[in-house]
Write a structure and sequence with these properties.
Distance between the termini: 49 Å
Shape: elongated
Radius of gyration: 21 Å
Oligomer: single chain
Number of strands: 0
Number of helices: 5
């Protein structure tokens, strides 16, 4: 009886530990996929006009929503969702930004993805 009780307690403690680690990984993933930025600083860095700044903010807000949806998705679907979100973001940014601004934006986006460990 004592062995059975100890075995049940060991299984329960391992299950709780596993579930706790899984929740911590989900929190880390959610924070890594949060792409919110300071739009004033982004506009200064890229040298945006007022109209460009408004368009970039709208495009990036949509990108942030797509990335948060990817963070909540299954691991199997996540990579595809991130790829589609980035492609959509870059397509729209290419339309709004000139060549020099677009190159700077690519550098910033790539650095962000590298720093958050999303380039796998």
């Amino acid at each position: 009886m004592k062995r059975l009780f100890l075995t049940v307690m060991a299984v329960l403690s391992m299950t709780v530990t596993f579930a706790e680690n899984e929740n911590l990984n989900n929190v880390d993933n959610a924070s890594a996929y949060n792409m919110a930025v300071n739009y004033d600083r982004l506009a200064d860095c890229l040298g945006l006009s007022t109209d460009q700044a408004e368009a970039v903010q709208d495009i990036h807000t949509s990108f942030c929503a797509d990335m948060m949806n990817a963070a909540g998705a299954n691991a199997d679907e996540r990579a595809g969702m991130v790829k589609r979100a980035v492609e959509k973001d870059l397509k729209y940014m290419r339309y709004v930004l000139n060549d020099n601004q677009y190159r700077k934006y690519l550098v910033l986006l790539n650095a962000t993805f590298n720093n958050r460990g999303l380039n796998k």
